[in-house]
Specification:
Layout (H helix, E strand, L loop, with lengths): L2 H28 L6 H19 L2 H13 L8 H16 L4 H23 L4 H21 L5 H9 L5 H23 L16 H15 L6 E5 L5 E5 L2 E6 L6 H20 L15 H15 L3 H14 L9 H8 L16 H17 L7 H13 L25 H20 L3 H6 L4 H10 L9 H9 L6 H14 L2
Parallel strand pairs: 1-3
Antiparallel strand pairs: 2-3
This protein binds zinc ion.
Zinc ion binds next to α10 and α11.
Length: 499
């Protein structure tokens, strides 16, 4: 056996252990009885510890060195050279984390989520404060183990957006804010010119489910290699490119919630199903970063799913599904309703224009939490203050404010910014796709999604984690990641809707 073969067979084991832990986590969020939480936390912690332990050994280090020599002559983007390159990066990072910390992180994040679910249901931050303090302390420890050049936060961000620094984010977000704030202000003066009452009727959940799944399949989601379930917080997870699962949250009285949630998660699922089978059970399977992942979900949810062209195809079907509810609503009124802009409390239901302000708020707060400049106890007040500054509204309670997102309870710090990165990247990719395949907008009007999906599969999906996110954006679009194309897209679209 070559050194590379040894490395691959070990990484396949590590990948299996991680997939098993992910399956336990999927189960926890979809069907596990609540009382199972403490035992589940131990089970996940054990698997994570085993996966980490099998990875950070001295022999893996030796195989990596041997495999690097064996693959030296291969092309940069070949599967094997990429495997060695990416695994080396992962290995060097994983070696810096003590096994006891890996185990403790897995345990506390699993427990933290249960505490959050309870605190959220009672809308009481004080119930969550202790668990959050534990998680923040662990994240600081983790960042210090991983190491960073300037800010502790950078070590955490790198877990989700490899290679990105908070200084890069600060620049991008400053550009974004410069473009967004005047746009939000202008639209705010005309809020009443677009109405969405039509979306706030009673839409039976079984019909919503069937309609959403039908669209997901039209877009290319293979239900022979995936499924959909319900959870408190919608997500997508996968255990191989042939087992990709999405979840949705339904609201009988608000159609967009599950509809666009499903399109969003479908975007993630298409990416996972599109990763080359040759990369299965290697560290290269799955998406390259959360920002790139989110570019896929936001593209299908917004650039496709909230476009006028898409509803030319889908609206007659939706009217057939809900004939009474939508009888008096024209395609144009529906298009305007689903694109209504309104500063609102809940991030996942925010419109495209205000969405990124929700992200900046979370980013700024978590940087402060990690830097220790904001005590956990002061978080609700800080949250509400920023909501007033950015969106002009004050959350009436914790459930609609600081407790709305699952992320922090799951130990995910450094994750939120990737949502905004995804928005920016989605526009850069879509612009490029539309230039290279000019028929895409017309295809979408006919419900023909394979030209766009085919382009994404070829340029983005099949590569899995081979390239760093900034590298992938450069390779595909020929440009650096920028805020300007996204701002131009919003100005054009909402300039028309809001006159
Ligand atoms: Zn997403």
């Amino acid at each position: 056996m070559s050194q590379l073969d040894h490395l691959k067979s070990r990484m396949a084991e590590v990948s299996d252990l991680k997939a098993a832990a992910a399956l336990l986590s999927w189960d926890q969020q979809t069907c596990m009885p609540r009382a199972g939480a403490p035992a589940r936390a131990e089970q996940i912690a054990t698997l994570e510890k085993l996966a980490h332990g099998r990875f950070v050994t001295e022999e893996v280090g030796a195989w990596l060195e041997g495999a690097a020599a064996e693959t030296r002559a291969l092309a940069y983007e070949s599967d094997d050279a990429s495997l060695v390159r990416l695994t080396r990066r992962d290995y060097d990072k994983a070696r810096r984390i003590p096994p006891a910390l890996v185990e403790e992180l897995a345990r506390q994040t699993s427990l933290g989520m249960e505490v959050w679910v309870k605190a959220r249901s009672q809308s009481d931050f004080s119930l969550f404060q202790g668990a959050l303090q534990t998680l923040v302390d662990l994240q600081r420890k983790l960042a210090d183990c991983l190491g960073y050049r300037e800010r502790r936060y950078d070590a955490l961000l790198d877990q989700y957006e490899p290679g990105m620094q908070s200084a890069d984010l600060d620049r991008l977000f400053a550009d974004l804010k410069r473009g967004l704030v005047p746009l939000v202000q202008e639209i705010s003066r005309k809020l009443d010119s677009v109405q969405d009452e039509v979306l706030r009727q009673r839409f039976p959940i079984d019909k919503q489910t069937a309609f959403g799944l039908e669209l997901a399949q039209e877009m290319g989601f293979d239900l022979g290699a995936g499924r959909q379930d319900e959870s408190v917080h919608p997500f997508c997870t996968s255990f191989s490119n042939r087992d990709v699962r999405i979840t949705t949250r339904f609201d009988e009285r608000f159609l967009p919630s599950a509809l666009f949630g499903t399109l969003h998660e479908t975007g993630h699922a298409l990416y996972e199903q599109g990763v080359s089978t040759a990369l299965e059970r290697t560290p290269l399977s799955g998406g390259t970063s959360l920002g790139i992942h989110e570019s896929q979900s936001r593209m299908w949810e917004n650039l496709v799913g909230r476009s006028r062209g898409f509803w030319k195809f889908a609206y007659p079907r939706l009217q057939r599904t809900f004939p009474q509810e939508l009888a008096g609503c024209s395609l144009e009124d529906f298009y305007r309703a689903i694109n209504r802009v309104e500063p609102s409390l809940i991030r996942v239901e925010a419109d495209e224009v205000t969405y990124n302000l929700h992200i900046m708020l979370r980013y700024e707060l978590e940087v402060q939490l990690v830097d220790d400049s904001l005590p956990v106890a002061d978080l609700p007040e800080a949250w509400n203050g920023k909501m007033r500054d950015y969106l002009g509204i004050t959350p009436p309670n914790d459930a609609l404010g600081v407790l709305q997102d699952v992320h922090w309870s799951h130990g995910l710090f450094g994750y939120f910014p990737t949502y905004s990165l995804g928005n920016l990247i989605s526009v850069q990719l879509y612009d490029r796709a539309s230039r290279e395949v000019p028929g895409i907008p017309a295809d979408i009007e006919r419900g023909e999604f394979s030209p766009l999906l085919g382009w994404l599969r070829e340029r983005v999906h099949r590569h899995g984690r081979k390239f760093m996110p900034a590298e992938l954006v450069r390779r595909v679009t020929g440009e650096e990641l920028r805020a300007e194309p996204f701002v131009s897209y919003l100005k054009a679209k909402y300039g028309e809707i809001y006159n």
